[in-house]
Amino acid sequence: MHTEPTTFSAEQYFATQPPPPTLQHDVEKVREFLQRQKSEGRAVVLVTSGGTTVPLELNVVRFLDNFSAGTRGATSAEYFLKAGYAVIFMHRQFSLQPFSRHYSHSTNPFLDFLDIEPPQPEDAEPTPRISVTPNKREDLLQVLTAYKTVHAQGTLHTLTFVTVNDYLWLLRAVSQEMAVLSRKAMFYLAAAVSDFFLPRQKMSEHKIQSGKGSLHIEMDQVPKILKPLVSEWTPGGYIVSFKLETDPQLLIPKARQALERYGHQVVIGNDLHRRKYEVVFVSKKPLPALPPGAVDGVNSRTEESEGQQESGNSADGGKQEELADSFTETWLRIDASETVATPGFPVKEIEEDIVAELVKRHGDWIGDSQSTTSQ
Ligand code: 9Z3
């Protein structure tokens, strides 16, 4: 059967695609969490993390997915918690999570640093004990202490999604709840969300059969939900989206385009292969204060970023050049070698610097509104 592609506005999307069955329950829990954080005076950040799936059948056997492991989101959530934020961590089921992420990779499996000690003669019960390998104790103690503290304070709330549909419904519902925090809410949209989906009305009910030879599927575009997020669902929130590209020349033009379209506060651009040690903050002027060591993209633009802009221009007939003056770019870079575990050297995570910069900008943003309202 051939059907025409449909362009869904956000409104049409939610009117035609069904909500996930757990939505109501999830929203109630989020509401309770937010009320507590509000009464305790905390700022709250919604961190989205991991990839979304796009099911191809209603009784789903096959789906499209993407590469995201959830490292950016899980790592950033830890730094936000450390900075005193309460965190709603909305992540793809089974992707990395704050704290446990340190031990869930196959490069650092936790079973490898647990020892079995045989029972001692003085033990009442002749059962072996489990202990932590001595050279791993310090690291584990740090992670465990941070984890226990967060649990005791009740500052981390976790939600899960699998499909792009789950993600969209949850994002809308959670952001609407977060509106009660006004400027004290931050949105850190690091999840890698599919741009395409198969509407329920076009899905095959049962497993697609292989007998007909090749498979042709035409997908529709996922609606751009940043627009209603910014203007309707959570007015006042500080919104940070991510832009992922594999062609570095597109990074800044695309980030600017997103800011122009949606009118939010920051787009963090990252290149697929360089994302662990280099990102660029793109925002509208006026210029915020720069972090120590960061390169000012407007006043002392590097050769490299000039080059990126010029080649970005060709695609849009000079529009980028016109726009260049109203944007600022701040590159955050760390040494790639520091991101790899080396005995005797601490691993540096770029998320530490990303979060520090955002906490500062968000603080300014909250402060701005207080000075405006008190006037
Ligand atoms: C990102 O760009 C994230 O930084 C990564 C993190 C997905 C690259 P990992 O989970 O990777 O640490 O493995 N997220 C946003 C990607 C995205 O889909 N952005 C949309 C776009 O680029 C806009 S919302 O069009």
Précis, in short:
By secondary structure, the chain is an alpha/beta fold.
Overview of the structural elements:
InterPro entries: CoaB-like_sf (IPR035929), DNA/pantothenate-metab_flavo_C (IPR007085). This is DNA/pantothenate metabolism flavoprotein C-terminal domain-containing protein. Residues 1-20, 291-322 are annotated as: Disordered. This protein is α/β, with parallel strands linked by helices and 375 residues long. The protein has a domain at 26-101 and 136-204 and 220-287 and 323-369: Rossmann fold. Helix content is 34%, strand content 19%. The protein contains 10 helices and 15 strands. It has helices at residues 10-16, 23-39, 71-82, 137-153, 164-178, 226-233, 251-262, 303-313, 319-324, 350-373; strands spanning 44-49, 54-55, 63-64, 86-92, 114-117, 129-132, 156-161, 185-189, 196-197, 220-221, 238-245, 266-271, 278-284, 295-296, 327-333. α2 runs parallel beside α5. It is globular. It starts with 9 loop residues before the first helix and ends with a helix. Bound molecules: ligand 9Z3. The site of ligand 9Z3 has 15 residues, from α3 and β11. Ligand 9Z3 binds next to α3 and β11.
Keywords:
375 residues; alpha/beta; nine-stranded mixed beta sheet; two-stranded antiparallel ribbon; 19% strand
CATH class of the domain at 26-101 and 136-204 and 220-287 and 323-369: Alpha Beta
How much helical structure, as a percent, in the residues?
A: 25-40%
**Oligomerization category of the chains in this entry:** single chain
Mean pLDDT level: 89
The succession of helices and strands, N to C, reads HHEEEHEEEHEHEEEHEHEEEHHEH
Task: Quote the CATH topology of the domain at 26-101 and 136-204 and 220-287 and 323-369.
Answer: Rossmann fold
**CATH H-tier superfamily of the domain at 26-101 and 136-204 and 220-287 and 323-369:** CoaB-like
Strand order of the largest sheet: 7-4-1-8-11-12-13-15-14
- The whole-angstrom Rg is 23 Å
**Number of helical regions:** 10
Percentage beta strand: 15-25%
Unreliable runs? 298-315
Please report the distance between the alpha carbons of the first and last residues: 63 Å
Attached small molecules? ligand 9Z3
Class inferred from helices and paired strands: alpha/beta
Characterize the largest beta sheet: strand count, sense, and whether it forms a barrel.
Answer: 9 strands, mixed
Q: Using DSSP, what is the number of strands? A: 15
Family: Belongs to the PPC synthetase family.
GO molecular function, one term: catalytic activity
Pfam families: DFP
InterPro entries: CoaB-like_sf, DNA/pantothenate-metab_flavo_C
